[in-house]
Amino acid sequence: MIFFSGKELSQKITYLKSQGKELNLSINYPKKFEFFVKFYISMFGIPEIGFQERFNFFQRCIKGLSGKIFIDAGCGNGAYSRFMAKKYPQSKIIAFDFEKKLVTLAKELTNQKRINFFTHDLTTNNGRLLKQADIVWSLDVLEHIKDYEKAVKNLTLMVKKNGYLILHVPLINQRRWFGYFNDWTHETHEREGFEKKQITNLLKGFQIIKEVNTFGSIGSFIWELNIILFKYLPPVGALLFPLLRMMLYFDRLISSKKYNCLGILAQKL
User: Fold this and answer.
1) How many angstroms separate the CA atoms of 104 and 214, rounded?
2) What is the pLDDT of residues 101-111, one digit of tens each?
3) Among candidates 54, 83, 77, 41, which has minimal Cα distance to 242?
4) What does the pLDDT read at residue 160?
5) Alpha helices of 170-216 — where are they, by DSSP H?
6) DSSP assignment of 102-165, as one string?
7) Which member of 9, 19, 148, 217 lies 3.0 to 4.6 Å from 256 by CB, making a disulfide possible if both were Cys?
8) CATH fold label, 47-218+254-268
9) Structural contact between residues 142 and 199, judged by C-beta atoms closer than 8 angstroms
10) Stretch 62-77: mean pLDDT, rounded?
């Protein structure tokens, strides 16, 4: 069964206009179509392939894991925190982001008292977070941070002994399919990607349980097509998104010579 994440954003579709840049996505529509946009999001979630595939990676990582305290570092709109609150009903979730607007949005979308959203800079030490969590995750966050080494260090300090850290980052020298992306940069990125060793070398005291390459040939093509369609032909993009989302399954079945992103699951020793 295909899981579509971000359906709760149907309550706050203005996010896709005002903060859509976080998702490489901008959906503009006449006000008279607002009802249909809300219905669409309630059915298919956020129509951005990158967001959906990162969520898929996250689900695979937490399979079989357990815990009572979780930290969502760089929580964005809070989708992962809300998902974990439902999956682990006895858990407590600490979620933060550097962007105050995103924290405000996450609070507005959440009715779970067990999730504590607040504004925090990941490069700043916070003694209250030290060795607190059974699982810490930070997905596609480090590329937004200038001092990513300090950020990773702080992430590792938040994890309890035998706890888990989940990371997902873009890699450098990504494969491109369409000319539109040849000189493409993300306006909120400090860098467009990492070498794998730049991340793994920082995980001292951790055992890497799983390395997952994401966005291979099929996935990267689908990601680019999704963005282009919504930019130039939004109705076509909306119609094709569910199909593109399902096609991501084949990206995991068919190996590629080159992958655009890397996911890591590591356990603290």
Assistant:
1) 30
2) 889 989 988 88
3) 41
4) 97
5) 196-200
6) HHHHHHHH---TTEEEEE--TTS--GGGTT-EEEEEEES-GGG-TTHHHHHHHHHHHEEEEEEE
7) 217
8) Rossmann fold (3.40.50)
9) yes
10) 95
The strand ranges marked E within the chain are 69-73, 92-97, 115-119, 133-139, 159-170, 206-214, 261-268
Answer yes or no: is pLDDT of 31 > 70.
Answer: yes
Query: pTM of the full predicted structure?
Result: 0.92
Angle between helices 79-87 and 49-62 (to 10 degrees): 30
Residue 63 CA to residue 87 CA, distance in Å, equals: 11
Q: How far apart are CA 124 and CA 239, in angstroms?
A: 43
Beta bridge partners of 208: 266
Query: Which tops the pLDDT comparison, 138 or 40?
Result: 138
How far is the C-alpha of 72 from the C-alpha of 97, rounded, in Å?
Answer: 9
What is the pLDDT at residue 188?
83
Domain boundaries along the sequence of the chain: 47-218+254-268
Distance CA 88, CA 112 (A): 12
- Tokens coding 80: 């992962």
- By the 8 A CB rule, do 9 and 16 touch? yes
**H/E element, 244:** helix 234-253
Whole-Å CA distances, 35 to 13, 40, 136, 214, 239: 10, 9, 37, 34, 16
How many CA within 13 A on the CB side of residue 57? Answer: 28
Question: Are 264 and 210 contacting, i.e. CB atoms less than 8 angstroms apart?
Answer: yes
The arrangement of strands across the sheet holding 115-119 comes to 115-119, 92-97, 69-73, 133-139, 159-170, 261-268, 206-214
Dihedral of the alpha carbons of 250, 233, 26, 93, in degrees to the nearest 10: -30
pLDDT above 80: residue 124: yes
Residue 27 has pLDDT above 80, yes or no: no
